[in-house]
Design a protein that fits this description.
heterotrimer; A alpha+beta; B mainly alpha; C mainly alpha; B: mainly alpha; two-stranded antiparallel ribbon; 15 helices; C: mainly alpha; Cytochrome Bc1 Complex, Chain D, domain 2; two-stranded antiparallel sheet; 8 strands; 3% strand
Chain lengths: 163, 424, 586
């Protein structure tokens, strides 16, 4: 004799007589369960914002001619450094990978005032507590001729846009 | 050989056993008893389970009759649950600021996933809840279910009605469109007519002399925090009182005659606790009119819930909640109408501000509170429109119909400048 | 119970499914996918192609805060090709936004550069519409509750069908250019300029105030008309002034649709704010009036003539071959009114005709003198013609060609011109009274004295003509009525107080509490009840006539006989009361 009670479910007397009841019960159960699942999925979609109200991650900076070769200029609002070498353009993030301060352009690359991280011209870490190199952002040429930077799309360092 | 239930000894082999038994142990620590399979087990579970013990173990057959209660109280409760859930979800995107509220409503309509649908659900459930609690009150009255010992529960019910109306009223302002702003301007002006304290009350309610940012913030806090908490508290007591009063009201049943002289006359009367836990585990000895809550009451509740939510879902799919022009404080719409449940009041107010807005409604509410203390008879309980209660029922029905007529006039027959118009 | 439960559960599931599905496959996603595919096929390098392949539809928005409140413009979610010049020939919504020199765009190295960059301006500041919406109906402002539908492209369903087609057209957008480009004669806003000129030329400036442009007070302030009202309301208010306010006395100027359109665009550009202006500029602009340049050495009359033309008096009046069709004919003004009258009337028209709707222009005193001098110089009488022609030339403008008091300008005149077709009235008055009215005019009304234009025989001729043609009556001997010549009741404070009581009880339903003819019943009565505050009129009427009107009533009007309800003393008290109003005591 088992101490734990049995786990068989159908002890009621109805089931042998009423398969219809079972079908209906299954339908109800399925309907409610599936609805619950859809509701949970819907909640996830609901909570994920489709728009945010801050500054856009994708922005135009001007025409290529606005950045003559040799340009290395930081845009503090968007936290990005525009680089042009010859006919190639790139955008390097100026957010320090350590704890998020804005790095300044230095003679040898970038330097962060907060905890002393140093980076070279391409954003590789040369000193300080920064764990990762500065990310490079995707630079594209929009159909109307503007140079567009997309901070949501990172590219491998060394990827340039040829203008 | 089955393993014993002694705690395992601390040998190296049992470390693995502990790990293997982990899932089962976790499960058993949460669900101490297996899923019940007999009536006794079901009774025990519904008695001891945290969520289920709000229900009695056994419930009178009459309680479950749809034509008796029509499940109105349950529908109201489920509508409230739907309102809380949808309301909390909407709170993630709404901002109670006069400059942002309307834009957020536009975003809920335009960009938020399921925004329109959730808002529709919230609005139609809100209107539904006001209507249903009113109908529930009518049901309770017409079945005489406010009589002794249920007087206080009736009083609680009237309070719940008032809180529900106030919840609906505070929520009405939040979209901050012309409809909301002017409806609340009209409504709070009526409050200002109360004698002595009227103007003070209006000032405290609005946080300012006119409806503006302060009013929006106060109404928001009332709507999402204070009033739901009060409502839940009072609902809890309302349900508790149902249990304490012996369940829902029902018609008196003549006691069944004793079958023969040989039956043991019990000297001590055991409550159901005794049946479930006590010495008498054989059920069916005492003739009674009740059935087990599990599964009968629970199934009834599930059914009412699914019916309610399916209705709300369909209505929300087909009809959009209104969003009118952004607030323009210099330009009231013509006519500026209060929400429908206050239109009867607004109609009366167009004749006399004090009597229509404060006097008559105040009198009606006072009468409602007083009903069970004035009607001390005990007959006619448990059935609809009992003949013994003709007078009481007639008075109430007349007032209900008058109320409905006034609301109908205010809705359909009043046009610009509150002149009488034909809706056809 | 189980069957309904199962059905309800399935309904719940179906609704969940439908709603869930509706969250995908939005209209804007389809447009974006179409754009991405087409852009890919047009693209010239692999890098771009790969990037487009990886691109998923997403909501695009431009947030702009430089124009007052925060604009969140999501238009580019569907109009994704707006800044892509390769899509110039496509259909909306994937069409490039046009470039043009008129919008300030320039071409550099063969490529157009936009002057009004989308990232700086967004879309709704120029186009209106609802930036936050993501489906066509709401985002284009077709929802009747949205105050700013897409200007010139969209009409809302509750707009009147008779003119809503005229509210479409790109020119309507000029109203929005003028939010920044407020200078007069800006090349990009010809319709605003035309509307501005019409605002002056049609004398709108006389009644309506626009900050920095005019100071009229008779009509509503239009400084922010464009912000408050939609174009359909503006159009309707011009072509049918009484559509929204039954008691408005704004004239119907019978403008051509092109003129109405220019005015609407001009008014729509009045937003009360100019984003390009500083508050100092706005303060400096707060000066009144159109500057009119009078060439030096011009005598007063010539200057007056020029002023009359520049100040758009003929928008209402008639003079020479110009006729506004709203106010009296000034062609013979020198023979009709004296200098004092004209001068007073200019400064405040209501000082001479208390119920006049002519605005009180705030011109400098010398301009009034010049205008008066000019009008007084109009002393050439009309050629003598027969009675019928005289009536048509001089009387019909107010009294109507049919003599029924419904002449061209009759609606704008208060008290209304007499209706000669009422035999009851015409036959009950002595001929001498009519002759006097024509010769001397009727004080406090627009009926002027004609004695310097019409000789006695002409007056007799016209009178006979009127009686025969319109009243179809003969002048008869009238029964002498038992009416005192002078008020037998002495005028003292007690009599006036008694008279006031009687007046409040009997008379103010029509004549108004203030005895100004604006009682609650007056709106339905024609001719309107007499305004007893019109002291020019009341003082010109002898006691006998007042007695007669009160005791016997005035046939042909709604004034009943009070003989059975008031005795002579009471009537005398009332007359004392009425006369007491004229000295300004009440």
């Amino acid at each position: 004799m088992k101490v734990a009670p049995q786990r068989d479910r159908q002890v009621t007397s109805e089931d042998s007589q009423m398969p219809r009841r079972r079908v209906l019960a299954w339908l109800s159960g399925f309907g409610l369960f599936a609805s619950g699942l859809l509701a949970v999925l819907s909640d996830w979609l609901f909570f994920k914002p489709r728009v945010t109200y801050g500054p856009s991650a994708r922005f135009a900076i001007g025409k290529p001619d606005d950045f003559p070769p040799g340009t290395r200029i930081a845009r503090d609002v968007e936290r990005v450094c525009i680089v042009r070498e010859g006919n190639k353009m790139a955008a390097i993030s100026t957010t320090c990978t350590h704890l998020g301060c804005i790095v300044a352009i230095s003679d040898t690359g970038f330097a962060c005032p907060c905890h002393g991280s140093h980076y070279d011209q391409d954003g590789n870490v040369t000193g300080g507590p920064a764990p990762k190199p500065l990310p490079w952002f995707q630079v594209t040429l929009a159909p109307n001729g503007d140079v567009v930077i997309d901070k949501n799309a990172s590219v491998d360092p060394g990827t340039y846009l040829t203008v | 050989m089955t393993p014993t239930q002694e705690p395992p000894t601390q040998k190296s082999g049992t470390a693995l056993a502990t790990l293997r038994e982990l899932p089962q142990n976790v499960w058993n620590s949460i669900f101490r008893n297996p899923l019940p399979s007999t009536d006794l087990e079901r009774s025990s579970t519904s008695f001891t389970n945290f969520f289920l013990h709000i229900h009695p173990v056994k419930v009178n057959k009459n309680t479950l009759r749809p034509t008796y209660t029509m499940g109105l109280g349950l529908i109201a409760t489920f509508l409230f649950v739907i309102l809380v859930v949808t309301g909390v979800l909407l709170m993630f995107y709404y901002v109670p600021s006069t400059t942002q509220a309307y834009d957020r409503m536009l975003d809920l309509r335009g960009t938020v996933a399921f925004g329109i649908f959730l808002r529709n659900m919230h609005r139609w459930s809100a209107h539904g809840m006001v209507a249903i609690v009113f109908l529930h009150m009518c049901r309770v009255y017409f079945t005489g279910a406010y009589k002794r010992p249920r007087e206080f529960n009736w009083v609680l019910g009237v309070l719940l009605l008032l809180v529900t109306l106030f919840l609906s009223f505070t929520g009405y302002l939040l979209p901050w469109d012309q409809l909301a702003f002017w409806a609340i301007t009209v409504g709070t002006s009526i409050a200002g007519y109360a004698p002595l304290v009227g103007k003070q009350m209006q000032f405290v309610l609005l946080g300012d002399t006119t409806v503006g940012q302060e009013a929006l913030l106060r109404f928001y806090v009332l709507h999402v925090a204070v009033l739901p908490a009060v409502l839940v508290l009072m609902m809890a007591i309302h349900f508790w009182r149902i249990r304490k009063d012996g369940g829902l009201s029902r018609p008196e049943v003549a006691a069944a005659p004793a079958p023969d002289a040989g039956v043991v006359k019990l000297k001590k009367v055991y409550g159901l606790q005794g049946f479930v836990r006590g010495p008498f585990t054989k059920l069916g000895n005492v003739p009674d009119n009740s059935v087990y809550s599990w599964p009968n009451l629970l199934m009834a509740e599930l059914f009412v819930f699914v019916l309610t939510i399916s209705l709300i879902l369909v209505v929300s799919l087909l009809f959009n909640a209104p969003l009118e022009q952004p607030v323009n404080i210099m330009h009231p719409p013509n006519p500026a109408k209060a929400p429908w449940y206050f239109l009867g009041l607004q109609e009366m107010v167009s004749y006399s501000a004090f009597w229509g807005g404060i006097g008559i409604p105040g009198l009606m509410v006072a009468m409602l509170f007083a009903v069970p203390y004035i009607d001390r008879t005990t007959h006619g309980v448990g059935k609809w429109f009992a003949k013994e209660r003709l007078l009481a029922n007639t008075i109430f029905l007349t007032l209900v119909i008058l109320n409905v007529i006034f609301i109908a006039i205010g809705t359909f027959f009043r046009g610009p400048n509150w002149t009488l118009v034909s809706p056809f | 119970m189980r069957l309904p439960l199962a059905i309800a559960s399935l309904v719940v599931l179906i609704v969940h499914g439908v709603v869930f599905r509706n969250q995908f496959f939005h209209e804007w996603e389809r447009h974006q996918t179409a754009y991405i595919e087409q852009a890919r096929s047009m693209s010239k390098n692999d890098h771009e192609r790969a990037e487009l392949e990886a691109r998923a539809p997403r909501i695009e928005q431009i947030i702009v805060t430089s124009f007052g409140d925060t604009h969140v413009d999501r238009c580019t979610t569907c109009h994704l090709a707006a800044d892509d010049p390769r899509f110039g020939g496509h259909a909306e919504p994937l069409k490039s936004h046009p470039y043009s020199a008129a919008m300030g765009d320039v071409q550099r190295n063969g490529q157009w550069e936009r002057r009004h960059k989308f990232s700086d301006f967004g879309c709704t500041v120029c186009h209106d519409g609802q930036g936050r919406g993501l489906d066509t109906f709401y985002s284009h402002g077709q929802d009747e509750f949205w105050p700013d539908p897409l200007t010139g492209y969209v009409t809302q369903p509750n707009w009147r069908k008779d003119f809503s087609p005229k509210l479409k057209g790109k020119e309507y957008m000029e109203a929005n250019c003028a939010q920044c480009h407020t200078e007069e004669a800006f090349a990009g806003t010809p319709h605003v300029e035309r509307g501005r000129k019409l605002f002056y030329a049609m004398n709108c400036y006389g009644c309506h105030k626009i900050d920095g442009m005019s100071e009229g007070t008779l009509g509503p302030d239009l400084t922010e008309a464009g912000k408050k009202f939609k174009v359909d309301y503006l159009w309707e208010s011009i072509v049918e002034p009484r559509a929204n306010l039954a008691t408005s006395f704004m004239p119907d100027f019978h403008l051509q649709p092109a003129d109405v359109e220019s005015l609407v665009i001009f008014l729509k550009s009045r937003r009360g704010v100019n984003f390009a202006e500083t508050s100092l500029d706005r303060y400096k602009a707060h000066v009144a009036n159109v500057a009119v340049v009078i060439p030096p050495g011009t005598a007063g009359e010539k200057a007056g003539e020029q002023l009359l033309g520049d100040r758009a008096c003929t928008a209402c009046h008639k003079l020479g071959d110009k006729d506004g069709g709203i106010a009296p004919d000034l062609s013979y003004e020198g023979l009709i009114r004296d200098e004092q009258w004209v001068g007073d009337h200019f400064v405040n028209p209501r000082s001479r005709v208390p119920d006049s709707i002519m605005p009180a222009f705030r011109f400098p005193a010398e301009d009034f003198q010049r205008l008066t001098a000019y009008l007084e110089s109009l002393k050439t009488p009309p050629p003598p013609v027969d009675a019928h022609a005289t009536f048509v030339n001089l009387c019909a403008r107010c009294h109507g060609e049919k003599g029924d008091g419904a002449g061209k300008v009759a609606w704008y005149i208060d008290p209304s011109p007499r209706d000669f077709t009422k035999p009851g009235f015409m036959a009950s008055k002595p001929r001498a009274r009519f002759v006097a009215s024509i010769q001397e005019g009727v004080g406090g009304t627009s009926m002027p004295p004609w004695k310097r234009i019409l000789k006695d025989e002409q007056i007799d001729g016209v009178l006979d003509y009127v009686m025969q043609t319109f009243a179809k009556e003969q002048f008869k001997e009238l029964k002498t009525r038992n009416i005192p010549e002078k008020n037998p009741v002495a005028s003292n404070p007690e009599s006036i107080a008694r008279g006031e009581q009687v007046f409040e009880l009997r008379c103010n339903g029509c004549h108004g509490r203030k005895a100004d003819g604006k009682g609650p019943n007056s709106l339905d009565i024609f001719p309107h009840p007499r305004n007893f505050r019109n002291h020019w009129f009341v003082e010109s009427v002898p006691d006998r006539r007042l007695f007669e009107s009160i005791e016997y009533g005035v046939q042909g009007t709604a004034m009943p006989s009070w003989m059975d309800m008031l005795n002579t003393n009471e009537v005398g008290d009332v007359i004392n009361f009425i006369r007491s109003l004229q000295s300004g005591r009440k």
